[in-house]
Amino acid sequence: MTDVPPEFNPETAPPRLTIDWDAYLPFFESDDISEEEKREMIEALWRIMVSFVDLGFGIHPVQ
Q1: Is the whole-model pTM more than 0.70?
Q2: Buried residues in 39-57 as b, exposed as e (16+ CB within 10 A)
């Protein structure tokens, strides 16, 4: 069972963004932190980035 609301329409829904771990983990290779901490850092930065995208999604460029 999923948490999809009944009014959800995949044709009009915004795209779902996911983390590409292989693209971002190499940026933390030289850091002296654990793999778990690296993933936590990437997830935190990812949430910030997605929040900015959400703020601007559906806004007309002239606004």
Answers
A1: no
A2: eeebeeeeeeeeeeeeeee
